[in-house]
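stuck on this:

***
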Amino acid sequence: MASNYLYIFDNDLRTSYLPVLSQFIKEINDSGHGELQCAYLFDPEDLKPKNFQSALISPAKLKLICESLKELGQVLANKGILLDICIGNKSANLGNLIKKYNVTCLGYSSPTGSYERELYRNAEIEGLTVHNDFQTSLFNKATLPFAINDLPATFTRFRKVVEALPLDELFTHYQKLPELSHKTNCAMQLLANFEESYLSLNQTPAFSYALDTANKLKIEFSGGEGLAVHHMNNYFSLTSPSVYKTTRNFLDNWTASTKFSAALCLGNISPKQIWREIVKYELKNGSNESTYWIKFELLWREYFHWYAAKYNEKLFHFSGITQQKPLSSFYPERFRKWIDGATPSHFINAIMNQLKTTGYISNRARQLTASYFVNELNIDWRYGAAYFQSQLIDHDVASNWGNWQYLAGVGCDPRGKRKFNIEKQQNLYDPNMSYINKWISSATTLPLDSVDYVDWPIVNEEP
């Protein structure tokens, strides 16, 4: 009996290093029969505010997803594979696909978010043969040196364990997706079918509105595997990796950091490919603290992916992975002022304006405005994490929520809550106020609150 395969794309929008899909194609090619269907599930509800008053996908990120899908659909068609874009409730559409194609084998990249994992639980109950693996991380279950539940309690312990492994050998494998030799349709027909589903996506009202919003932003990133690989190759052809540690904290400089984050969150590129290029660069140009630091930050990202896999829903709990709730609450006025860049801090306002305008801020800026949110505004950290998710072009569930937990003192940081001195950080990273002047049209500051704790108006009286 021929097997019918269904592969679901999500945050792995590329055609390289996808061992699950590669295995499906190999089985079909070896047997000479069987059908393969690929799909991307899109729910317009993800563009609307949900928990913590924020959407799950930002308009900026949606734009990159579209660009990635357009390239992916074309490349797959040339390999004899149709990519279908299914619009609506993801669980219902997954069930419909399974029935429509009489699917016997389901494949996907193991997700890190709890919502995404829930999507596949019913499919597994139906008795399908399920193939999944962590295809967006450096390690998979086979190469991880411990069980997920035995993940070290801190990043430092994790790093020391994995760095003892032959990482340079583990992450040099670069696998191109094979072509489907058992074709039922020509590439032109497959491409026409894909473009029809892509057109339906563009005509969805919520989708169109979000894209219109994105087009008004000043987005410097683009989606797609081809551009991601081009950017990676270009970056490592320069000397930037050798000075990365000294420039990575710059607030607003395109060449200061690697800018791999958007491609990684979309899955346009595998972290294994980046690791491979770092090793090649070091062999040619020599290694130093800066080249090591790129690896260090890939491992930091890696840690939070397994952290999310271990703690599941606790990634979104107020008390995080601890049993102790923070001494914070939700203050609507403070939250609104933080979003609008109308706090008493010019520096924080500039960061928030850049985020709203471009969909991107530097890692240093993220830490500073998150610290201000938690420590100065004293707001429930989850609202900040959710707002980042709704705005960031490079939002990654595990990294974003794990880092917010870390900073709020309810995550994996053994030292507890992290607090930055905002004035000191401004003097260090923007001493001439060039960043502030770029991102703030007026330097008027507002008081933190307009009412006191019993809702009486706060009046600033003249002395």
